[in-house]
């Protein structure tokens, strides 16, 4: 939807979207992991795109990123970015493995982390679509394991078509044994159709 911007949505609405998406995502992950999972949203913000590497703890931080392209009433991209420790914790729990690095991941781990990202992004997009009454379609998720600066280069390449501001939702997945951190980043495209 051309001309749509985060400044047109009340901050409380953005927080509500984040909280509903978190609840749905936590429920889906709890079933997948066969564990009690809760997800909290300590921060919902609309920073400038150029500040994202610092928010993700530095451009050289190794991350797992799942990117989906959006079409419909909102066009652009959504990314879910997890730090290395969180991605390894999730896949190790699911596959009963002991990987300590994302670069140790084989096909099975890559498939699992992609599916987890798909579940999480779908949960947030359903909440966004439901609360704002928008029709949103998403592409097949694409996984990237690299430094934060490198994974952000994909939307940066298209930055001429997107606005300066993004929607950033920091989330914490909690269980009795572990905490995992991730960031949802919605990057709208304001280019002409």
Describe this structure as you would to a colleague.
This protein is 38% helix and 28% strand. With 193 residues, it is an alpha+beta fold. Strands 1, 2, 3, 4, 5, 6 and 7 form a 7-stranded antiparallel β-sheet that branches. It has a single domain, classed as CheC-like (Chemotaxis protein chec, 3-Layer(aba) Sandwich). The protein is globular, with a radius of gyration of 16 Å. α1 packs antiparallel against α4.
Entry summary:
The protein is an alpha+beta fold and 193 residues long. The chain is built from 6 helices and 7 strands. 38% of the residues lie in helices and 28% in strands.
Which CATH architecture? 3-Layer(aba) Sandwich
Structural class: alpha+beta
* Beta-strand fraction estimate: 25-35%
Low-confidence stretches: none
Portion of residues in helices? 25-40%
Shape: globular
CATH topology: Chemotaxis protein chec
Distance between the termini: 9 Å
How many strands, which pairing sense, and closed or not: the largest β-sheet?
Answer: 7 strands, antiparallel
CATH class descriptor = Alpha Beta
Overall mean pLDDT: 83
Task: Describe the protein's topology.
Elements: H1 11-33, E1 38-45, H2 52-55, E2 62-72, E3 76-83, H3 84-95, H4 107-132, E4 136-138, E5 142-147, H5 148-151, H6 153-157, E6 167-174, E7 179-188
Give descriptors for this structure.
193 residues; alpha+beta; Chemotaxis protein chec; seven-stranded antiparallel beta sheet; 28% strand
């Amino acid at each position: 939807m051309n001309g749509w911007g985060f400044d047109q949505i009340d901050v409380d609405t953005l927080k509500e979207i984040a909280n509903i998406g978190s609840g749905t995502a936590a429920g889906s992950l709890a079933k997948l992991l066969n564990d009690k999972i809760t997800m909290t949203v300590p921060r919902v913000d609309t920073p400038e795109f150029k500040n994202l590497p610092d928010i993700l703890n530095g451009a050289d931080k190794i991350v797992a990123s799942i990117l989906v392209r959006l079409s419909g009433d909102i066009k652009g991209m959504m990314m879910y970015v997890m730090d290395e420790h969180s991605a390894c914790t999730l896949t190790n729990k699911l596959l009963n493995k002991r990987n300590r690095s994302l670069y140790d991941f084989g096909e099975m781990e890559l498939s699992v982390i992609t599916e987890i990202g798909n579940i999480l992004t779908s949960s947030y997009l359903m909440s966004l679509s439901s609360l704002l009454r928008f029709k949103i379609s998403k592409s097949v998720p694409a996984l990237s394991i690299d430094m934060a600066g490198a994974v952000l280069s994909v939307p940066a390449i298209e930055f001429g078509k997107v606005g300066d501001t993004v929607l950033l939702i920091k989330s914490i997945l909690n269980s009795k044994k572990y905490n995992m951190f991730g960031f949802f980043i919605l990057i709208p495209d304001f280019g002409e159709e």
